[in-house]
Amino acid sequence: MTIATKLAKKRRSKTNIYRPYVQAFFFVLIAFISINHSLAEAGKGISWLSSASLHALCPFGGVVTLYQFFTSGTLVQKVHDSSLVLMVIGFVMAIIAGPIFCGWVCPMGTFQEWIGKLGKRIFGKRYNHMVPEKWDKRLRYLRYLVAIWVVYMTARSLSLVFANVDPYFALFNFWSSEVALGGLVVLGVTMLLSLVVERPWCKYACPYGAVQGLFNPIRLAKLRRNNETCIQCGACDRACPMNIQVSKLDVISNHQCISCMECTSDAACPIKETVEFRIGKVK
Amino acid sequence: MKISTRVMAILVFALLVGGIGLSIALGAWSTKSEKIPATYGEGEAAGEYNPADIRGSYTFGEVSSLFEIPIEDLRTAFRLPGGNPEAVALKELEGLYGDLNVEIGTSSVRLFTALYRGLPYTVGTEDTWLLPEAVALLREKAQLSPEWVVYVESHMAGLTPVPQVSMSTLTPESNPTPTMTPTPRKGSGTPSASGTPDHTKESGKVTGQTTFQDMLDWGISQEAIEQVIGESLPDVGLVIKDWITSKGLTFSSYKTALEGLYTQLP
Question: Which CATH architecture is the domain A3-14+222-278 placed in?
Answer without folding.
Answer: 2-Layer Sandwich (3.30)
